[in-house]
Every structure is written in C-alpha cells, then in structure tokens.
Design a protein that fits this description.
Distance between the termini: 34 Å
Strand content: 15-25%
Shape: globular
Number of strands: 7
Number of helices: 4
Helix content: 25-40%
Structural class: alpha/beta
Radius of gyration: 15 Å
C-alpha cells in the first residue's frame, strides 16, 4: 500500500466493511492502515464514507434511522470518521454520499454540504453516480474540506 501511495498525489480509501467478522473492527483496521500510510508518505487521505455518517437536520443521526441490516456497516464507517476527527497530523476528508446514488447524467449541478444529509425539495437525498464522481474529483483537485466531512446531493 505504501509503495503505491508514494507515487500518488492523494490516497483515496473507498472500501466497505462487509463480510464476516466485526465490521467496526474491520473498518478501523483498514482506516488505521490508510492513516499510517498517509502519515508515512505525507499524502492527503480522502475516505469515501456512507450516508449513515451524516446527521439529519433535526440533529438525529442518519444511522439511527436505517433498517437494521444497514446499521452495522453505517456504524463502522461512522467509527472511521470518529478516528479521523482525532487524527490531527494528516490532511483528510471524509466524503459522505447522499442516501441514493444511481447511474444517471453528469450535470455538474449539485450542492455541497458538511455533516447534514442534503435533500431536494421533495425530501429525496440523491445524486447521480456521475455527479458524485464529479464532486469527488473536484475535491481531490481543489481541496475545500480538509480535516472535515463533506457530502454532495441535489
């Protein structure tokens, strides 16, 4: 991992803690490895998280509103975010998606946010895969959310 990272501009961690075992422990182990690599190579770390790491506008956590079969993974990714928040010696960004990402059209027209789930005027939290990728690449090329969480949606 560190050998490949030496030649990169930014380390992007996009993994999901699925499978057998404790998802929180798995997610933390992978995140700690990525943090150590970022530290050793002096690279920025961008983690693609989950919508469960966001809060609702009323302050409740999205993870607490998810069906039980999604909660373990969401809690695992929230634990990664919590780990990053205590890591002050590297530059990091935690990129949380909206509730729904699906193939669609690249419009380049979406809103950026930080810790609160973004919804449209119909209450939907969504973005096309193309616009989500655009928001990620834009953050990679021109960092605006260093040492913080971000999200993107319509």
């Amino acid at each position: 991992f560190a050998d490949e990272a030496k030649h990169a501009d930014v380390i992007v961690l996009a993994t999901s803690p699925r499978g057998s075992g404790d998802p929180v422990a798995q997610a933390k182990a992978v995140a700690n490895s990525a943090i150590a690599t970022a530290r050793a190579t002096h690279k920025r770390l961008v983690v693609v998280g989950g919508a469960g790491s966001l809060n609702l506008s009323d302050g409740r956590r999205v993870v607490d509103t998810l069906p039980p079969n999604y909660q373990a993974e969401a809690l695992a990714m929230r634990s990664v975010l919590d780990t990053l928040k205590t890591t002050s010696d590297i530059d990091w960004t935690f990129f949380s998606p909206p509730m729904s990402i699906s193939p669609g059209t690249h419009t380049g027209k979406y809103r950026l946010g930080t810790t609160v789930l973004l919804t449209d005027d119909k209450g939907k939290s969504r973005i096309s895969a193309e616009d989500y990728a655009d928001a990620l690449v834009s953050e990679l090329e021109k960092p605006e959310h260093v040492r913080s969480q971000m999200t993107a949606a319509y």
